[in-house]
Amino acid sequence: MNREIPIFFTIDNSYAPFLAVALYSAIQNSDPQRRYKAIVLYQDLNEENKVKLQALQTENFTIELTPMKANFEALDDRMSNRLRCDYFTLTIYFRLFIPALFPQYDKGVYIDSDVVLTDDIAKLFDTDIGDNYIGACNDLSIADIPPLVAYTVNGVGVKAEEYINSGVLLMNLKKMRESNLEGHFLHLLSTYHFDSIAPDQDYLNAMCNGKIYYLDEGWDAMPNDQKPRLEKTHLIHYNLFSKPWCYDGVQYEEEFWAYAENCGFIDEIRTYKDHYSDEKKKADSECLEMLVRRGMEIPEQEINFKKLYEKGVKIRL
Predict the structure, then answer these.
(1) What pTM value is reported for the model?
(2) Residues of the domain holding 201
(3) How many Cα atoms within 13 Å fall on the side-chain side of residue 304?
(4) Are 251 and 223 in contact (CB under 8 A)?
(5) Residue 164, SS3?
């Protein structure tokens, strides 16, 4: 059990403080007998933030900071004859390239940076997902928004109870490489340019459906005012707009602030919250309304995942 546990994150400079909370919580819940490596793929991370993030390292939990652009340049040779796409577009989908970019790993964990760990991430890594491509949790953040539930069925072509959130992924990297997930994704992207409301998440759902291991919901516990707190969480994901560094009264906010206090960025996080204006909150509401509206429009389009799949186009891996 001494093998290294790779945990992937992707951020830009503005998200460094929140990544620090995630990293600190992961380190606090780690097993001293295990070895962990956080691989942080970043855009435009300044030197001060690099130093502060790497200061969180411990003897058994290392933090490797890697510029995203360098990775895409390395990947470019593989896709140069298949797709010319600007870096910004591809970074939206970055987690889909992890298998190709890190051939030294057969298994790994990808986590969004708006999380706190309340348990040892090694327990997730050790989960046997068999021959499935990924282990993930059903996306309960949309369960109470009927138009978005309908979107997963009629736009993505996946039953609501099978539609996963891509913010926490246990990745069978070896299997994903063998099935050329990266190449299949690039083919779909360049051929059809599917409209979607959650780009990487919708592609993952469409491609991997039927080969997904469903994790205990405690590995992707999301604030939801319509539901009581989970009695046992392993990882809390402050998904969409339910972020305690923006709003008061967010479910599971106590856990966030407990870890934030010692992450090295507490002053920056408090300042960010103090300056989260009414204009920004209004923009959040408008963004959610737009998501719902687009979720109603996309199933009506001639080209979407479900319609092409039903016509016999190869969507699933």
Answers:
(1) 0.94
(2) 5-237+250-310
(3) 23
(4) yes
(5) strand
